[in-house]
Amino acid sequence: MENQRDLKKLGQKLAYLLRHDKDYNFRDGGWRYSSELTANHGFTLTDLIDIVNLDDKRRFEWEDVVTYSWIRAVQGHSVNVDLHYKSATPPDYLYHGTSEKVLKQILSEGLKKMNRLYVHLSPDPKTAYSIGGRKKKKGTITDVVVLRINAFKMWSDLSHNYTFFEAKNGIWLTDEVPPEYLELYKS
Questions:
Q1: CA separation (Å) from 47 to 14, 27, 60?
Q2: Which of 110, 115, 123, 183: CA 20 to 30 A from 145?
Q3: Of 121, 116, 145, 148, which is closest to residue 133 (Cα–Cα)?
Q4: Residue 19 maps to which CATH number?
């Protein structure tokens, strides 16, 4: 790999191909054949290995680190794949970073998965802030706010069947977060 910038760009491309490529028939579990990525999308196997190993968000994983045959994203999909995560009891609180311009709507309507399979929640405010800031566009200023989700209370609500999953990179997944479980986090 020539430099870190190229690796970052390739990582973004890989994230798209593993999360959103509606033209690819993913194997059960969301796995994609690595040789298909090298043959058709400009990656080398070394690129793929470096992207997985150097990704600080741990967004990707190998099925087998001996053959490097199958790779997948651990969360963030808009294509319908079953990652076979088992439901888990969430911690008392989880967090979600977002833009201040949509705060009023979220506090009124709750968090929705939009075009993704799940709503993504962070284990701590720092991670949520970092994720919430990812949508900043060059030359624009977007204020990031962090929401605190009373996850355990939501999970314990017997009048609904709220289910939580923890992805392998520590991000928590759920179908929705109603507004009554949300509050603005203030550090």
A1: 10, 22, 13
A2: 115
A3: 145
A4: 1.10.10.970
Residues near 94 by beta carbon (within 8 Å), at least 6 away in sequence: 121, 122, 123, 148, 149, 151, 172
**Which tokens hold the place of 46?**
């070394």
The pLDDT of residue 1 is: 41
- Is 1 within 8 Å of 56 (Cβ atoms)? no
Nearest residue to 45 via CA among 23, 62, 30, 57? 62
Q: Rounded to an integer, what distance in angstroms lies between the CA atom of residue 48 and that of residue 52?
A: 6
- When divided into structural domains, the chain yields a total of 2
Structure tokens at 59: 């967004």
pLDDT of residue 18: 98
User: Looking only at Cα atoms, what is the longest distance across the chain?
Assistant: 55
How would residue 159 be classed by pLDDT, with cut points 50, 70 and 90? confident
pLDDT band at 5 (very low <50, low <70, confident <90, very high): low
Rg (CA), the chain: 18
CA 147 to chain centre: 16
